[in-house]
Amino acid sequence: METLTLSIAAVLLLLLASILWRLRHVQGSKTKNRSGSLFELMKNSHRILDWTTELLHDSPSGTTVTFMGVIISNPSNVEHILKNRFENYPKGSGFTSVLSDFLGSGIFNADGEHWRLQRKTASLEFSTKAIRAFIHSRVRLESVSRLIPLLSSAARSGEQLNLQDLLEFFTFDNACQVTFGHDPSLLSSPNDDDPLSSDRQFAKAFEEAAQLSVRRFSHPFPFIWKLQRFLNVGSEGRLKEEVAKVQAFAMDVVQERKRKRDRTGSLGDDLLSRFIADNDYSDEFLRDIVISFVLAGRDTTAAAISWFFWLISTRPAVTDLIVDEIRSVRAKCGKTMEQEPVFSLDQVRGMDYLHAALAESLRLYPPVPLQTRTCLEDDLLPDGTPVRKGQTVMYSSYAMGRTERIWGQDWGEFRPERWLEKGVFRAVSPFTYPVFHAGPRMCLGKEMAHIQMKAVAAALLERFEIEVVDEAKEREKDLGMMLRIKGGLPVRIRERMFLN
Questions:
Q1: Rounded to whole angstroms, what are the CA distances from 253 to 38, 181, 262, 270, 286?
Q2: pTM for the whole thing?
Q3: Which structural domain range is residue 446 located in?
Q4: What's 90's domain CATH number?
Q5: What are the binding positions for heme in this chain (predicted)?
Q6: 18 belongs to a structural domain
Q7: CA pair distance 126, 118, nearest whole angstrom
Q8: Which of 335, 386, 424, 442 has a Cα-to-Cα distance from 379 of 20 to 30 A?
Q9: DSSP class of residue 445?
Q10: Within a domain: residue 423?
């Protein structure tokens, strides 16, 4: 079997070399501009976001055609594919097949009627006051009982912490509680790596499966990873093992929840319970929903808050204004931190400057910086760019957040004031700022994400001064399922001094 695998690999290498030579010959004979060619893509694969941003900035229309497909940063084009011609631009099988082993037919990897069915149910659940209160209560509990005590201990000992890791444990615990009512308690003992713990096995397998699934996108030719999957070798063999662990855990959760319903006639307030109560879905369908919603709630918020703390670490004036706002809200509520460790929903909503600072951070470092769609039928974008049937169209929220045409000459400055009008936060068009996507697939958890980010940031900044180690050093980006800080965010914690 090993000899056969090596022989096939050798043939594939020769085939790939032949394809690359032919592409170079054809492209070289047709055009002198090869900025978006396969060779440039391979050369810039380690900096794909900045490379595509440079291509878009050089384009008068904010659109560029590359080996990967059409990449857009023009708000009119974004509105065209995400709203006006929504039906013509699904995610497409080219995208969904990459994540199908991990996410199955869950909402974030579905198109057409299958997506509409899930979206309708999820929309109803996310629009209720009960789910908002439930999410906030989980954030409150996790903050008060775990995150704040952990940081207080580090402040006393002088211990250096990786804040991004802690926030990922925090959001994983919350995502599991909100999605299926189970608390993995990873943040309770963040340095524990007990191999016998089913929760930690699930978390580890989840992380591995997510990273290995994303690796498929790095292959310029899909047949490479598909052949590896067929042969069950390399990263595809590992992916199969990790996905099996994740699915087994999620299936156990689904079946136990159904047994509880049959035994007691009652269910919880989590999303899984609501899906079970409202519909007669199969176990496999519910399993995929569990995995999808854990993924959505796990890394996006952690990544966003990590980038936020790094950005404000070198901007004391911004930090002071945020702390002043937090103290003003504290003074109005008439309760001390001991009496009310985490602010209420209404209090969090009233923190406009904090909201603006988080929006500014998301503008520069969106958790999902590049999104793809597939063109079903030949089309013409508003800027005159033709799109062929089957061609991939990508919109870059990362590039759009760094575009002078949209944000002005000071686009590179971290300036929360650009989001404020007479001190009140004012949102912009989602087609200009598609951090939470836009159109019919607008993120259902947008408001919940803001509440969670603001509640956590307010609770930490009220109590602690967070000093980022090597704060002036540019942080390298780690683009996987989400845009994370490569190597994490090492920090030192100090109790904040209060002056009367």
A1: 44, 9, 14, 12, 10
A2: 0.88
A3: 53-495
A4: 1.10.630.10
A5: 443
A6: no
A7: 12
A8: 442
A9: T
A10: yes
What total number of domains does the chain contain? 1
Residue 3: closest CA among 233, 171, 197: 233
Query: Is 176 annotated as belonging to a binding site?
Result: no
In a domain, 176, yes or no: yes
Q: What is the pLDDT along the chain (500 residues), one digit of tens a residue?
A: 434 333 444 444 444 444 443 444 444 433 333 456 767 777 777 788 999 999 999 999 999 998 889 999 999 999 999 999 999 999 998 888 889 999 988 888 888 888 888 888 788 777 777 777 778 888 888 888 899 999 999 999 999 999 999 999 999 998 898 888 888 888 888 777 666 688 889 999 999 999 999 888 877 778 889 999 999 999 999 999 999 999 999 999 999 988 888 888 777 778 888 888 867 788 998 999 899 888 887 778 899 999 999 999 999 999 999 999 999 999 888 788 877 878 888 898 899 999 999 999 999 999 999 999 999 999 999 999 999 999 999 999 999 999 999 999 999 999 999 999 999 999 999 999 999 999 999 998 888 888 889 999 999 999 999 999 976 667 888 888 789 999 999 999 999 875 43
Output DSSP code: residue 184.
-
Can you tell me the distance from the alpha carbon of 207 to that of 165, in angstroms, rounded to the nearest whole number? 12
Q: Which residue has the tokens 């999410």?
A: 135
